[in-house]
Amino acid sequence: MAIIGTGNKMLTSVVLCVYLILCTHSEARNPGVKIHLSKYGLNYAKEIAVDDLQKSIKNRGIPNHEDTSGDLSYRLSK
Q1: Torsions phi, psi of 63, nearest 5?
Q2: If you average pLDDT over every residue of the chain, what do you get?
């Protein structure tokens, strides 16, 4: 959650709701909370998240990385 900007309450709420849905396991027949996310709402959250991530990445440097595993080797650099 640290990547998401603090000024966007809507996105934070959507991400928190999705996190709670995915990370909790309940076997109750009648759950206490039901959330309906529409395609429009998910697309809106995606657009906001992409913008926030792009802004965050611009401010951070990504270090070069190189590794080998078996027959596979890779190098990530600027």
Answers
A1: -70, 150
A2: 76
Provide the greatest CA pair distance for the chain.
52
47 within some domain: yes
Supply the pLDDT for residue 25.
58
Question: What six digits make up the tokens of 31?
Answer: 């759950």
Q: What is the pLDDT of residue 1?
A: 44
**What is the Cα–Cα distance from 25 to 3, expressed in whole angstroms?**
26
Total domains present in the chain:
1
Structural domain boundaries, residue 21:
1-25+32-57
Residue 78 within any structural domain of the chain: no
Spatial separation of the C-alpha atoms in residues 41 and 14, rounded to whole Å: 9
- Tens digits of residue pLDDT in 9-21: 777 777 877 777 7
Report the C-alpha gap between 16 and 75 in whole angstroms. Answer: 34
